[in-house]
Structure formats: structure tokens, C-alpha cells
Design brief:
By secondary structure, the protein is an all-alpha fold. It contains 17 helices and no strands.
Length: 352
């Protein structure tokens, strides 16, 4: 009898671990299902318009929010949804490092790289200031600033786990940013005759202002191959700014992260594990230890995990919260985008 009692704790450990894993399955499968529908909608959009104006990432969070508004997931779904929203997103951020090469940054040209970095820094600072002046929280202001200044939804998704943003903050920043992102794609080509922009100038302008890489393609293809090539290059260089930003936020997060104030701040709290993984993969990619042949599969896995995470975030969003901050978020995103557009127009006239 005593032997059985003594062995029961040891036997309970694998059972407990197994039960925890099993408990995650329903919620994860639900998020995957929402992500799958979103991917199908993006594919249908691609077939109709030839370019995905609204990415699967955005569709996933909007679809998740729609489901959540009609049906609140029971407790049996919650652990898997929470796991998808946090841990899977952190893995996706780490895998982003495999697509970044420090050599590519150096080869892009000092003048253009410095100009892009300056635009990003100025836009980050002013966008954050505008959001705070409108009464938005620090975390939501950071999300809007990063999304507007760097690469839209991808930047928001990458920064969110570092600053401890909640589902409502992530959903509101992504939703309103996505709407303006589509408007930019549709309206930006109108500036070509209005401002008498050359193909090179318009490519730089599109790369600096449009949020996502597919959207840059959609905005520049009508202007010709030169604009498309330059726009994509500038956009990719802008995306590379995400690395220094996430590291900087990790090192300064203890100043405003509520959890960091309650405990002693150590190295691994200042720099989360997935940021270390991000830097490690970026270094390995730069040294070509990670071969170029595996970059595309890793990128697809990263994209899939991000879409699943956004579906999870949407499923956890209270639409009433979005309604309360909707006007201020819209104003912050709009003013920030107009600022970025103004700075970029001034810059492209310098690159004749």
C-alpha cells in the first residue's frame, strides 16, 4: 500500500503533462480552423484581384472576432486559444530571424539605409506621441507606432508579446491599421501624376509607406517593373528595422511592463527567449549556416503560425472594448500615416 502511495506522485507527473497537452488540443484546432478559412479567403481574393489586398493574417483576426461576438468559447477551449495567442506567436517571432541577413543590410547602400532608418525612427517617435496625446495606453501606442512605421500587422504581431499587450490592444491596432493599409494601396498610385513622380521615386514612396510586402506589389505593379523592384527593396529594408526595434523594446520593457515591476529583473526577463532565438537565427543566416533553401519553408511556417495566433487573438477579443477606443485609434493611425506619407514625399524628392 505504501509502495503504491510512494509511486503515485511519479506516476502523476506524466499524466499531468499529458492532460495539459490534451487540454490544449480543442482550442488549437479551433484556431487552426479559423486560420484555414482565412487562408482560403485570401486565396480566393488572390484569384479575383491577383493581389491579396487583405491578408489572411487580418482576415483571421476579424473572423475570430466575428465568431467571438456570436459565441463565447467555453473553458475547455480557453487553454488552447491562450497557447495559440502567446506561445505560437513567440515561436513565429523567433523564426522570423531565419529570413534576415545582416549582409543584405550592408549591401543596400549607406544613403538609402540611413534615410529609411531615419524615417522609421521619426515616424515611431511622433506616432507614439500622437497616440499618447489622444489618450491611448502606452502598449497600444507602441503597437500603433510600430505597425505604422515598420511593417504593419507583422510588426504589431512581433512586438505584442514583448510588451505584454492584451488581445483587445492587438486586435484594435491591427484592425484599424489594416483598413488604412488597403486604402493606401488603392490611393497611392494617384500621387504619381499629382506629384509628377518618376518610377524610382514612386517605388521608394511605396516602400516607405505601404504596410505589407504583398501590398507594396499591389501598389507598384501598375507603375511598372522599376517601381516594383525598388518598392520591394525599400520595403524589405524597412522590415529589417524590426530587429533593432524588438531588441530595444526588450531591453527597456521593464520601465512600463506591469509584470516586470513585481519581480527582480534578470537578463532573460529583459530579453525574452524568442528574441534570443531571433538573433541567433539571424546570425546563422548571415553566416550562411542556415542555407537559403530552407528560408522559404521557414517563412511559410512562420506565416502559418502567425495567422493561427491572430485567429486566437480574435477569438479572445471583446468587441465592446474596440468600440470604446475605435475613434481614438482611428485618429491615431490616420494622423500617423499622414505624417509618414509627408516625410516620405519629402524624402523621395531628394532621391531624384
Amino acid at each position: 500500500m505504501s509502495q503504491n502511495q510512494a509511486s503515485s506522485p511519479a506516476d502523476a507527473k506524466p499524466t499531468t503533462a499529458t492532460s495539459r497537452i490534451v487540454a490544449l488540443i480543442p482550442g488549437i484546432l479551433l484556431c487552426i480552423a479559423v486560420a484555414g478559412v482565412s487562408a482560403l479567403l485570401e486565396r480566393a481574393e488572390l484569384g479575383v484581384f491577383e493581389h491579396p489586398y487583405v491578408e489572411a493574417l487580418v482576415m483571421a483576426i476579424l473572423l475570430g472576432m466575428a465568431v467571438r461576438s456570436f459565441w463565447k468559447p467555453a473553458p475547455r477551449w480557453q487553454s488552447g486559444i491562450a497557447f495559440s495567442a502567446k506561445q505560437l506567436l513567440e515561436v513565429a517571432v523567433m523564426l522570423l530571424g531565419a529570413s534576415i541577413s545582416f549582409a543584405a543590410i550592408a549591401a543596400s547602400g549607406v544613403a538609402l539605409l540611413a534615410s529609411i532608418a531615419a524615417v522609421v525612427v521619426i515616424a515611431l517617435s511622433v506616432s507614439f506621441g500622437i497616440s499618447r496625446l489622444l489618450g491611448l495606453s502606452t502598449r497600444l501606442s507602441i503597437l500603433i507606432a510600430c505597425g505604422n512605421s515598420i511593417c504593419g500587422n507583422s510588426a504589431i504581431a512581433a512586438v505584442a508579446p514583448i510588451i505584454g499587450a492584451n488581445n483587445d490592444e492587438i486586435a484594435s491596432s491591427i484592425s484599424f491599421t489594416a483598413i488604412l493599409g488597403v486604402m493606401m494601396v488603392l490611393g497611392l498610385p494617384l500621387l504619381i501624376p499629382l506629384l509628377q513622380l518618376s518610377a524610382t521615386q514612386y517605388g521608394i514612396l511605396a516602400g516607405l509607406t505601404v504596410y505589407a510586402v504583398p501590398q507594396v506589389l499591389a501598389a507598384t505593379v501598375p507603375a511598372g517593373l522599376v517601381s516594383t523592384q525598388i518598392g520591394t527593396l525599400v520595403k524589405l529594408m524597412r522590415v529589417l528595422m524590426l530587429g533593432p526595434v524588438v531588441v530595444g523594446l526588450s531591453l527597456t520593457a521593464s520601465r512600463w511592463h506591469s509584470e516586470a515591476k513585481k519581480t527582480n529583473v534578470g537578463f532573460f526577463r529583459l530579453v525574452p527567449w524568442f528574441i534570443l532565438g531571433f538573433l541567433a537565427l539571424a546570425t546563422l543566416r548571415s553566416l550562411e549556416i542556415v542555407p537559403s533553401t530552407v528560408v522559404a519553408p521557414i517563412t511559410r511556417i512562420t506565416g502559418f503560425l502567425t495567422v493561427v495566433s491572430m485567429a486566437a487573438l480574435g477569438l479572445g477579443v471583446d468587441v465592446k472594448v474596440l468600440a470604446n477606443v475605435g475613434g481614438r485609434v482611428t485618429a491615431a493611425v490616420t494622423l500617423s500615416l499622414l505624417l509618414l506619407l509627408g516625410i516620405s514625399i519629402a524624402l523621395v524628392h531628394w532621391f531624384k
